[in-house]
Amino acid sequence: MVRKVIEGSKRPCIITHSDTDGICSAAIVLKEFEDKKFKVLVASPNSMAQRRFYRLLPKADLYLFLDLPLDQVWDVAKNFLKGKVIVMDHHKPQRNLNEEGVIHINPLFERDKYYPASKLVHDLLGSSHHWVAAIGIVGDMGVKEWKDFLKGFDMKALEEADKLIGSAMIYKGERGALKAIELVSKADSIEDLLENKTLRSWREKVDKYLNVLVEEFGSKAERIDEVAFYEIRPKYRIGSALATVLSQRYPHLTIVVINKKDGVANINFRRQDGKYDMEELARYSTQGIGKGGGHKKAAGGSIKLSGLEEFKRRVVQYLRGKK
User: Fold this and answer.
1) Structural domain boundaries in the chain
2) Beta bridge partners of 42
3) pLDDT value of position 284
4) What residues of the chain score a pLDDT lower than 70?
5) 98, 76 contact by CB (below 8 A)
6) Which pLDDT belongs to residue 323?
7) How far is the C-alpha of 276 from the C-alpha of 284, rounded, in Å?
8) Residue 123 — left, alpha, or beta (φ > 0 → left; ψ -120 to 50 → alpha)?
9) Does domain 221-321 sit in CATH 3.30.450.20?
10) Secondary-structure class of domain 2-198 per CATH
């Protein structure tokens, strides 16, 4: 059904998450429909909550939202989206948009299994580009759930490809993410990506800066019980990658990276051992002062800086209440 709708569109527009999973999701669509011209944009759940985001969307007869929880911002989005809408997402749904005339596909409607968006798009389109989905799975920490699909792949190569793709968004922002989508969609193999000089250069710069922030974590993070708050004002969009690296190093800590900029705190939550639900924590701690959501082991949110102390209080309260 999804393939047929895309084939019938004349002016399709892809809006995808700016992380590795979203980038790979978009690349799979572009590979499957090489002869069709798509407008491509990248977004985040936070940016989609703003009306100005939709005012900048190009006119299209089909909007494809990939790895983005459109249902969470539907009350805003529905006023701007005039074409057909398809959502292929794996975030915990707040509502079923099929009731609103949207083709809304989310595995969590039927079963509780971690299903990265790139794998979902791959399966729905019957794609043969397995390696792209494999990179997306690794990037979205779905290796445990999809180990059978990943058999036969070089895991080190997949991890390296994920870091190269992720560095594009971190170092160059939205332009970098769009460049990564272009490169993945045109590549014939993982090896093509690993040899790309542009991505390798970006990754080297990001890694150097990331290592500094990781080393400073021990002295600058604020620890309360099993949570570590790490406030940063980075020169790159590195919060998500930093939170992931720290959570891998400290799997039994709840990592909360707080990126402060222009009166807003963008927040990344991580907990590798799965003891606490980060999606639930993100919603609870930002309710009424911002917005949050995501997955069990990884989530994100944003609040006004004026609410930072209240946010921290709620995080500690939530974790103590769950013991």
Assistant:
1) 2-198, 221-321
2) 16
3) 96
4) 323
5) no
6) 53
7) 12
8) alpha
9) no
10) alpha beta
| 119, 137 contact by CB (below 8 A) | yes
- Please count the other Cβ atoms lying within 10 Å of the Cβ belonging to residue 131: 22
Sheet with 298-304: list strands edge to edge: 222-224, 227-232, 254-261, 264-270, 298-304, 290-294
What's the rounded Cα separation, in Å, for the pair 59 and 310?
Answer: 41
Could you tell me if 189 and 157 are in contact, meaning their C-beta atoms sit under 8 angstroms apart?
Answer: no
pLDDT per residue as tens digits for the range 23-60: 999 999 999 999 999 999 999 988 898 889 999 899 99
- Which distant-in-sequence residues (6+ apart) come within 8 Å of 142 by Cβ? 114, 115, 116, 119
Q: What is the Cα–Cα distance from 236 to 247, expressed in whole angstroms?
A: 19
pTM over 0.85: yes
Question: For 155-204, what is each residue's pLDDT tens digit?
Answer: 999 999 999 999 999 999 999 999 999 999 999 999 999 999 999 999 99
Q: Which of 183, 115, 179, 119 is nearest to 145 (CA)?
A: 115
Strands, E assignment, 111-247: 222-224, 227-232
